[in-house]
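Module 6 notes. Inverse folding takes a fixed backbone as the condition and produces residue identities as the prediction. Think of it as a translation problem where the source language is geometry and the target language is the twenty amino acids. Below is one complete input and output pair. Work through it position by position during the lab.
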């Protein structure tokens, strides 16, 4: 039993590190805009390890990001990352497109709203200038996120070692 717990914690750490790398190094970032797929390892962790470890993965990756990127801590933005880790693990019991698509869309909209509110707190009404572009990016990411998550999940289930 201890070995399984250790494996789960190790996988959670690896997924948090992957999310951090995707968010900090493998993304297009300006002051007001970031295009990244950091959510994918967090969602995978939530599905494979459950909502508690999924939420921890989201929080750990966000904490590492703000620490090394030099951004101020924001409870709202950290909560957005945690939601990516909690909600899929609560809702998805067996991965299928029927369950994954609404979860990705729902969490994306929820976190988009929270992140937009944080940008409004920081930039005031100026955040509305990029709102349509940010929304378009979120919508365009949906099929890519769903494809990558289902592909990774299928390959992991063919060779389960986690």
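Target side of the pair, the amino acids:
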């Amino acid at each position: 039993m201890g070995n399984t717990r250790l494996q789960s914690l190790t996988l959670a750490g690896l997924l948090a590190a992957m999310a951090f790398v995707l968010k900090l190094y493998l993304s297009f970032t300006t002051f007001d805009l970031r295009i990244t797929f950091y959510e994918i390892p967090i969602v995978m962790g939530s599905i494979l390890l459950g909502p508690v470890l999924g939420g921890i993965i989201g929080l750990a990756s966000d904490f590492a990001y703000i620490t090394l990127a030099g951004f101020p801590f924001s409870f709202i933005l950290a909560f957005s990352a945690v939601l990516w880790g909690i909600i899929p693990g609560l809702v998805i019991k067996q991965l299928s497109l029927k369950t994954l698509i609404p979860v990705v869309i729902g969490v994306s909209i929820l976190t988009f709203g929270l992140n937009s509110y944080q940008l409004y707190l920081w930039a005031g009404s100026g955040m509305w200038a990029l709102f349509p572009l940010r929304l378009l990016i979120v919508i365009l990411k949906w099929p890519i996120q769903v494809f990558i998550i289902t592909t990774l999940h299928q390959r992991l289930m063919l060779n389960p070692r986690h």
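Reference fact for the lab report: The chain has a mean pLDDT of 90.
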